[in-house]
Amino acid sequence: MSERLGAIARSRVARAVWWAAVVVVALALPLYLESFWLQTALFAMAAVIGAIGLTLLVGIAGQLSLGHAFFVAIGAYGYAYLSGAEARGAEGASGLGLPPLVALVAAVLLAGLAGALFSPIAGRLRGIYLGLASLGLVFLGQHILFNATSLTGGFNGRDVEPFSLLGFTFANNDPDELEILGVDYGALERLWYLGLALMAFAWWYAHNLVAGRPGRAMAAMRDSEVAGAVMGVDVTRYKAAAFTLSSMYAGLGGVLMALAFGRIVPDSFGLLLSIDFLVMIVIGGIGSVGGAVVGAVFVTALPLVLNRYSDSLPLLAEPGSGGIAAPEFSRIVYGLAIILVLLFAREGIGGLGRRLLAPLSRDRRLPSAEPPRTTPPSDVKESVT
Amino acid sequence: MNQFLTLLLNGLSLGCIYALIAIGFVVVFKATRVLNFAHGSILLLGAYVVGRTHESLGFWLAALCGIAAAAIAAALVELVIMRRVRGADLGTLAILTLGVDILMLTELSRRIGTDVLTTGAPWGSDVVEVAGLRIPESRVIAAGVAVVLVAGFAAAFKFSDWGIAMRSAAEDGETASLMGIRLSRVALTAWALAGALAAIAGLFLASFPSPGIDAQVGLVALAAIPAWVLGGFDSIPGAIVGGLIIGVVASMSAGYQNDLLFLGRGLGDVAPYAVMLLVLLVRPSGLFGSREVTRV
Amino acid sequence: MNEHHRPVPGREGRWTRWSIVVLALTLVLALAACGKADDDEGSGGEGGVKTGPGVTADTIRIGILTDLSGPFAAGIRPQVRTMRLYWEEQNKAGGVCERKVQVDVQDHGYDPQRAVSLYRSMEPDIAALMQLQGSPIIAALLPTVERDSMFSGGMGWASVVLPTRVSNMPGASYSVATANAVDFLVEEKGLSRGDAIGHLYFEGDYGEDALSGAEFAAERHGLKIVKQQVTPADTDMSSQAAAFRRAGVDALLVSTAPGQLASLVGVANSIGLDVPIVTNMPGWNPSLLRTTAADALREDVYSVNPVAPYASDEPGARKAVELYESRYPKALKDWAVPLGYAQALLMHRSLEAACERGDLSREGIVEAMRTLRDVDTEGLFPGTVSFDEVGEPPTRSVYLTQVDPDVPGGLKVLKTMESESAKAYEFKEN
Predict the structure, then answer these.
(1) Is residue B274 in a domain?
(2) In this model, does residue B193 exceed pLDDT 60?
(3) What is the complex's ipTM, to 2 decimals?
(4) Between residues 46 and 85 of chain B, which touch chain A (CB distance below 8 Å)?
(5) Residue A327's closest chain B neighbor by CA?
(6) Domain hosting residue B119, numbered range
């Protein structure tokens, strides 16, 4: 008996050590990574937050959405506008000049509001209809971004005000020279911590959601709407909630994206971005929060990293020579990955990872999340209680 | 008045091209229940083959090659990929076609690069005058071709063995196969046909007044999705009507955009999607589509 | 069964193994990426020449961050090729300051995310940017390159970059060029007080700068400008052409990319709008002569060029063409070739000047560039160019050319212009 307790105690300690190590490494990385890696990591963190939102929507709530880019744009442009200074020179884009933290929260809420407004539509439409409606939303959204010049700066975009909190700015100034352990802490290093905090929060919240009652309710809804309703799940309410939540995640990802770029243009928020997010969650395994993280990092970092090392990689041609350069190669990898995952390994990387680590953690994943169904399965899935 | 009629005629002829693409969507959906995101890149493939071969083979042979290439590519997608996941839900199938689309589009964009290919069509940039209105000859021919194809197609659908097979497979696949209809063959022909139609549409899309075949042409096929939705997912007459309506909407909003500047520039590109959203809100099954039935 | 002594591959065993793996990885990472605490100063300064990042004892590394796969790639690829060839040739002749010049080319595909990321990865290893292309990218990186004291050439011709100290504009700005165009229309195309000129222009720094020059010159002559703004995504100019015709314009100015020019010219022709058309240089690409707009392009279409076109007789242009054709005899002949040569030449002169002043650091190269005055480029630029006044373009002259399908590159030089409006145009401090 005491041996069992001892074993449990050791595993608890081991787990604590594990997490402590992860945290220490995460906090210390800016001391070692050069700016390229920090920049890539920031893009990846923004993508992670957005991807988690989409996997919740598609995998847990069972709603196919191609409109994620729209909500990301609301977050990004919302933050830029709310925190932006008055129009500069010929820029033409105005701003409200709110404190960055207020702007951040407001932008996320704005995205959530947009999601909530769209959710009645999402509620009425199922599966493929929703997918198409969200497609329309992306195009409509981009149209607005291109044309509302005083808000968005139009085709050439607008600058993004750096984030600051309690007098500390996450840019290269204010404080102008910040040295920690001999390393000059500029904008990228400082943003790293902000990104880390936001990402950790996003992940933690989603993790708990999935394991709790809302997660189970949403899964029931995903597997069979009618069956779920019969079991007492308020389908309309959960659909609306899922959409709103997923939009807030997208919005938060958008804010981080805006901060990571420093300047946002409407071209970045089109169908291609929505597709990228879908690729992320498919590769990671639809419905898997951990998988969304892996998928997001992979999709964001691959082209940038390949590009960096394209000289040493024999497959890749020189940019502009007409051969397969890093961006094309990456897209080919994505296309292949989607096909292979959906054909042979439906659960994606998240599923594989789970099987590897299953004995370690209490299983916080619900059984077999598959891409959204529009026709109910012919046999009843594992009951969810 | 002149401008209105010109825009209307242009819109109708553009709509015929959209109709061809939308029919492709319908046929694939009826036969295999797939929302085919790869349709755009198949269209681009057909146009690309024409663009690259017309100088050595002459236009007509090149056009034939392009149509064949698109049809074969579409059939291959069905044979090699989609067949393996028969019975999966719509979302999985749709995302799968998205993967195919990414692959094909990347490779085609790379090959086209920054060139703008011409189709080498014999009607070039000629303009036809009809009752005082000037319409590009290519559009008139497109409309004519579309009418012929649709008529022939409708006849085949109604009377030929294949057409009956398709219709019964779409109605009730299990019963159809019990009655001896080879579902796999129906699916294959449906995909190949959709590819051929897409290639023909692509040819006309790339003719005057468009500058030619560049990487953007594949995106135009996306503009036919509103036509498809408007007509109802599984209705061919719906696809035709939807195509015509969307064509007119696009043409009118582009033509009058200077008077509608408060709605933003580039109105012609976004108006079809606005219409689509409206349709989905008000009547998701479209003008002619069948309503979805829920079974527990 | 001796359960107590059998090694348990259970929970805590797995945990321990994973912890070790993580710690090991961390160690490896730390060792591999270590050394960031050291500040990287340029290594290799002998003989008294001060150096900075990107400069060693026998090499100077310069960067090109441009669009090689996006919407403007067609006009940029020949530039990059020519720039590479230029330095190959110069390196064979000994290089600059006893150092060989290496060129690092990166493609951002007109994606600001990629551009920002690529700049970050390039920046520590280069001494200057020979070309930084793309309006939104320039807008995103301008503060950064200024802060890094990074010489930034080839940033297009939009006046918005003029106040930046590090910018090196290859010729007259769009505003000045378009002012020249308006004067040309008045002097030689019979436009007079009260006439209207239609201006089709891109939203953003390019088009709006050109419009500014056009409006300035038009006001001086009592002309009216009819504006039509478009974006690179707009490919069909039918409604714009119709609007121009309704307004009864007597000439057209175009400040867009080749696609829009071709569409406008073709549609104008088909609706019977027969007026002289003058485009800014980026609107012209010789491949347009192979499209359906070819016939319409033969008549009365001109281009104002800050750099000599491919068919120019000037010795500088000839050198560029010979160099290019020696390696790429069958490639498209375009103004991008002399432009690339010109940019490389300006970079060369700046490096030489920096060498003479004994300072090859980034700051030194920028300062050297700002001492260049009345540089003779053998006709690559009309007249001479000077960079000693921040906020002013290097010259106010342009080459006035006409579209001619029978010359290589499709543009035939008519004359050099430095018109009154161009001379009088005032740049605003941003």
Answers:
(1) no
(2) yes
(3) 0.86
(4) 81, 84-85
(5) B106
(6) 9-215
